[in-house]
Amino acid sequence: MKKIFNYIPAAIACFLTLESCDSALEVKPRLAVDLASAYNSPEALSAALNGVYDILQSTDLYGRDLVAIPEALADNGRATNKSGRLNAEFQNQVGAHFINWSNAYVAINRANIILKNLPASSAPQATKDAIEGQCLFLRGLLYFDLMRAYAYTPRAVVTAQNLGGVPLLLEGVTGLDQVTLPPRASIDDCYKQIAADLTKSIEKLTNTDTRFVRPFFASRAAAQALLSRVSLYAGNWADVVRLSTDALAGGVGVFQTTPTAYVSAWRAASHPESMFELSYQANENIGVNLSLQTTYTTLRTLGLRTATAGFGDLVPTNDLLSELGITRTGDVITRGNDARALLYELGTAGRGPAEVETTKFLGKSGQVNQDNVPVIRISEMFLNRAEANYELGNFAEALADVNRIRTRAGLTALESTVTGPALLTEILRQRRLEFAFEGHRFFDLKRRGLDLVKQPRSIAFTDFVILARIPTGQISLNPNLKQNFGY
User: Fold this and answer.
1) What are the tens digits of pLDDT across the range 449-464?
2) Residue 340 maps to a domain
3) Where's the RagB/SusD domain (predicted)?
4) Range of 333's domain?
5) Considering the domain boundaries, does residue 62 fall inside one?
6) Would you place residue 27 in the very low, low, confident or very high pLDDT band (cuts 50, 70, 90)?
7) 274 and which of 32, 243, 350, 374 could share a cystine (Cβ 3.0–4.6 Å)?
8) Number of domains, the chain
């Protein structure tokens, strides 16, 4: 019986070989679907859609790497070498970077297959619209993350080293006769495609569809929020303001208005601010070696330093601790007025010397190494809008939004006299503090063309290691695919 090909390895370009039917039958039951009937019922469509969401949970996507590696590459995270993991990324060694290429294209292909077969499905039109909107959202997210890893952003390009974006594959591949060997599309064309996917996703999705539980499935507000982020990277400032405002009005995610509520939100199984969040079920535990909990902390339980769980591979740099107002004397931590400092605790000595560690991912679901992952939080919309308004010269509006974040953290509001470069510096500073260890820092510096000022060595924006290396197997097997400069 012919099956949907649930995993198409990226051998030539993105898809050359297909798994056998037997292999397809070995994956989780929700992913094995008869190709002849896969799109004829809402249940089958949902099963196929789950196969796209499922890949986002892998460790080289949002299970760990897209959250932790941006902190290691930049100036937020310091590798402890307790397990050896993320040490090379922290040192910005050649080739120590993102590796999301293969899994991203597998997920893109799954989305493409669904999109290709939707028109012929006998499912109700409302169901088809919802599935289409989610597939476009996911494809847009996956291509955006590929661009963040392997290409420059439209506003910050090292021209002499620029070899374009990534290959754009928009048709589902289910057989070898359908394989193509595409070259890299231009940066602009990639961003146009991402924007087109998300724009259509906004049209197809709603914020009230009870069949797909928010924030674990894409909604209209989530698509608006993601397109706000994409537009921020592209420098489309007016679009950022509009989309952020629309996303804030969508009713998906609740902004926490007090310091106490903000800290408590990080102790909930599902973050109340999440506009899009990955949910991990009991059988999807990443485990003690690669989960975000083990990556960030040795603690098993908040405040209990006698029970060791993880390795604490990546801890805050001294510079970040200073920015948060955190000082340490022996085993005593002193904090300033910033409530976000309460999300950092002294870990255990079970893996080596105790370090100050982030506790944003600490078994909130009640299970060690099984935290949900907020991909988009509503707080980002205020900071996206603040930065865009700054670039548009709307300093008062920008200041109002950055002050929302400051006062919610327990800090005083900035005076209206703060304008110009000082205001931009504060907006970027608040992004750093607000989203520390959530996977934003490296990308925020990169999209503005800023150097990585860090220990043990700083990395200039013009250094080729700013971009990830495309997997060498892809380059060897696809003559049309050019490797990034320097590799």
Assistant:
1) 999 999 999 999 999 9
2) yes
3) 363-447
4) 277-375
5) no
6) very low
7) 374
8) 1
